[in-house]
Amino acid sequence: MTRHRIGFGLLASALVALASPAHAVTEIQWWHALTGANNDVVVKLAEEFNAAQSDYKVVPSYKGSYPDTMNAGIAAFRANNAPHILQVFEVGTATMMAATGAVKPVYKLMQETGEKFDPNAYLPAITGYYSTAKGDMLSFPFNSSSMVMWINKDALKKADIAEIPKTWPEVFAAAKKLHAAGFASCGFSTAWVTWANLEQLSSWHNLPLATKANGLDGFDTELKFNGPVQIKHLETLIELQKDKTYDYSGRTNNAEGRFTSGECPIFLTSSGFFGNVRANAKFDWTNAPMPYYPDVTGAPQNSIIGGASLWVMGGKKPDEYKGVAKFLAFLSETDRQVAIHKASGYLPITKAAYAKAKELGFYKDAPYLETPLLELTNKEPTENSRGLRLGNMVQLRDVWSEEIESALAGKKTAKEALDTAVQRGNQMLRQFERTAAR
Amino acid sequence: MEKQSVFQSRLLPYLLLVPQLAVVLIFFYWPAFQAVWQSFLLQDAFGLSTTFVAFENYAELLSQPEYLNAILRTFAFSAAIAGSSLSAALLLAVMADKPLRGGAIYRTLLIWPYAVAPAVAGVLWLFMLHPALGVFSRGLRAMGIDWNPLLNGNQAVALIVLAAAWKQISYNFLFFLAGLQAIPKSVMEAAAIDGARPMRRFWTVTFPLLMPTVFFLIVINIVYAFFDTFGIIDAMTGGGPAKATETLVYKVYLDGLLGSNLGSSAAQSVILMFIVIGLTAIQFRYVERKVTY
Predict the structure, then answer these.
(1) Which one of B133, B240, B255 has the shortest CB-CB distance to A257?
(2) C-alpha of A338 from chain center
(3) pLDDT mean by block of 10 residues, chain A; 438 residues
(4) Nearest C-alpha in A relative to B237
(5) In angstroms, how far is the first alpha carbon of chain A from the final one?
(6) Which residues of A86-114 are buried (b: 16+ CB within 10 A; e: fewer)?
(7) Closest Cβ–Cβ partner in A250, A263, A435 for B43
C-alpha cells in the first residue's frame, strides 16, 4: 500500500463523512394491521407526512391481522429489530404496558423530544383507555371505535315496529316480532360475543367487569362479571337462541355479513362496520346506541372503545424518537383528525376535531357517525367504564367465549357458565401477574 | 456380488455426510432443544423477565382437566380422520384399479385435492357448510336439520374430520393404487379359478398383500391428523365451539402465539413430540409384526 493510496482513501472517507449529515433521511418503521380502505388511509397519512418535511420518512408496512401484527412486533423486539411504531389492538394494551423497557410511553417521548403535546386536548373517553391511573398517556390512540346497534329499517317496517328499540326488553320484543315476520333464522345477533355481552354490557350499566377499575389500577385484578345483570342477560339469550330469535354469530366479526345480507335485521357490532354497511347494504339502514336495562340504576353509563393504538417501541436512537414525536403531533392536527374520521368512520381523538366535525355539519347528513361518540361521552367515566386492562386478553376472551358457547348450546346454565368463565379467567390473570409484576 | 463402496481416505465419508448432518442439526435438533429449554422457563412475551421454574409448566398442564381432554380429543380426531380417509381411499383405489375406459382421468381427478393447501381446503368446506354463508347449510336446514357448527360441538368436529379426511384421500389413494398394481396377477387368477368370489378374493388375497402399504399409511395418516390439520382447524373453527375442535397442535398455537404463554406452549410441544415418537415406536414394534413384506 503506497502513501498515495492511503491519502486517497482518507480523502474519500472524509468526503463521505461530509456528505452524510448534509441530508440523511431518518426512516420511521410503522407496522399496522389495517386493510382495504383503512390501509389507504394509513398510506396517505405517511405520504402526507413525508411530503410535509424532509428529515424523516415514515414507512408503513401491513403485518396481517391484529394478533399477527402484535406477535410480529414482539418477535421483532426479541430479535432486536422492532419497528419504531407498532399498532396494537385495544385488548393488547395490558401486555404492552407490562413490557417496561420494550416500549416508550408516549407522554415520556413527548417530554424528552419537546414536541408540542397537550394531554387535555384529547377526548378522555378515548385516551383514558391508554393512560395510567395518573392520566399519563402510554400509547397514542389511532383508530378508535365503539359498539353500536345496527338497524335494518326496512325490516322494522315489515314487522310493524314503529320505534327503534332503546332498551333490551324492547330489543327482545322487536326481535320476536321480526322472527315472526319472516326473519326465522335470526331476529337479532351480536358480533364479538364477549365484547357485546360482557365487556360493553358491564360498562354500559356501570357494573365492574373486574376489580381495580377493570385492571387499569393494577395487575392484581379479579373478574367480577358473574353478577345478576350479566347472568340475567345471558339467560335471556339462551332462551331466545332456542328458536333463533337470537342467533349466535361467533367470537369475532366474521359473520357481520348477516346484517348486510339482510338476514339479521338487528345486529350489535363495532361502529367501524360503517364502511361495509355503506358499500353492501341494499336496504334502508341506520344505527343506534346499545340497548340497556332500564331497571339498572345509572344505565346507560358510557361505552368503552375498541380499535387500536400506536405504541412506540423502546431502544431507538434520540433522532428517531424526534421523528416519531413529530409524526404523532402531525396526526393530532385538527384537520387531519377530521379527514381520518370522514374517510374511515373511526373516531376523532381530539376535542377540537370533534367540535369541528359538528361545526361542518358532518352529523346532520350522517348521524350514524356520531352514535359511538355519543355513547362514549354519555356520562363522565367511572371506575367501571374507563376501559379495560387485563393481561392475556386475547386468550381471556377465548375462554369466556367457550363458556358462553357452552351455555348457548344448552350444556350449562348461564350462572354456571359465567362462574366458570370468571374462575378460569382469574387463573390466567394470576399467571400474567407473575410474569408482568417483575 | 457384494455391494460395498470403499473409500480411500478416512475423512471423505464424513465430509460427504456433513451437509445432511448440518441440516438435521440446524433445522431439527437445535429448535427441539430450544423448545425443551423454553419449557422449563416462565417468561413474558417480550422475553424481558425470565425465571427458571423446572417442571412447573408440565405439572400445571397435567393438572388441568382441559389438557387431558385435549389429548383424548386429539386421539379421537386422528382415529376418525385416519379411519375415514383410509377406507374411502381404499374403496376408490380398488375401483380405479379395474381396467376402465378413461381410468387415467379418474386417477388424475382423485389426486387433485392433494394439491390444495390445508387452509384453502378449510375455507372451501366452510363456504359450503358455514351456518350463515354456506350453500349446503340452507339445504340441511330445509331438511329440518338444525345445522349450526358455530354452537354445536359435534357438528364442528364432523366438519373438521370431513375436510381433513377429504384432503388426505388423494395421498392414500396414490399409495393404495401403487400397492394394488404391484399385486401379481397370477395370484388373483389362481384364486378366481379356485372359485373365490370378488369380495372373498379381496379380503383373503389382496388385502393381506396390501398390508405393508396399509401399515405405512396408518403411520403417515396419524402424523397428518396430529400436525397438518392445523390449517384446517384455524380456517374453519378456530378451536371452537367451546374447545370442541381444539387439538393438541392447535392448543400449542393458541397458548404460545395468541396467549404469549411460551413456557406452557413449549412444554406442550415437548409432550406432543413424545406422544408422536411413542405412537410411531408402538406401531413399528407391535403393528409391524403383523405385516408380512
Answers:
(1) B133
(2) 18
(3) 50 49 80 86 94 94 89 89 94 87 94 90 88 88 94 96 96 97 94 96 97 90 96 97 93 87 95 86 96 95 94 93 95 93 87 93 90 93 90 87 93 96 93 74
(4) A250
(5) 57
(6) bbbbbbbbbbbbbbeebbbbbbebbeebe
(7) A435
Predicted confidence (pLDDT) per residue in A93-137, tens digit: 988 988 888 999 999 999 999 998 998 899 888 888 898 878 899
Per DSSP, helices labelled H in chain B are: 11-24, 30-38, 56-63, 65-97, 103-111, 118-129, 135-142, 153-181, 185-193, 198-201, 207-223, 230-236, 248-253, 262-282
Q: Which residues of B touch A249 (CB under 8 A)?
A: 132, 150
Contact yes or no for B188/B201 (Cβ under 8 A): yes
Q: What is the DSSP secondary structure assignment for residue A197, as one 8-state letter?
A: I
- Of residues B45 and B77, more confidence is placed in B77
Q: Are A123 and A351 in contact (CB under 8 A)?
A: yes
Contacts of A322 (CB under 8 A, 6+ apart): A56, A113, A115
Which chain B residues contact residue A78 at CB under 8 A?
Answer: 46-47
Query: What does the pLDDT read at residue A1?
Result: 45
* Cβ–Cβ below 8 Å for A436 and B44: yes
Our CA angle for A192, A195, A197, nearest 5°, is 95
Scanning B222-241 for CB atoms below 8 A from A yields 238-241
* Interface contact flag, A398 B258, Cβ < 8 Å: yes
CA A41 and chain centroid, separation: 17
Chain-chain contact of A98 with B254 (C-beta, under 8 angstroms): no
Quote the CA–CA distance of A156 and A296 in Å, as a whole number.
27
Per-residue pLDDT, A296: 96
A372 contacts A347 by C-beta, under 8 angstroms? yes
Length of chain A: 438
Contact indicator for A248, B151 with CB cutoff of 8 Å: yes
Choose from B38, B42, B46 for mutation: most chain A CBs within 10 A: B46
Compute the mean pLDDT over every residue in chain B, rounded to the nearest whole number.
86
By the 10 Å C-beta count (0-12 exposed, 13-18 middle, 19+ buried), B247 is classed as: buried
Contact A249 B260 (CB under 8 A): no
Within A122-278, strands assigned E span: 140-145, 147-152, 188-190, 266-270
pTM for this prediction: 0.81
Rounded to whole angstroms, the Cα distance separating B188 from B201 reads 7
Residue A174 CB neighbours (<10 A)? 24
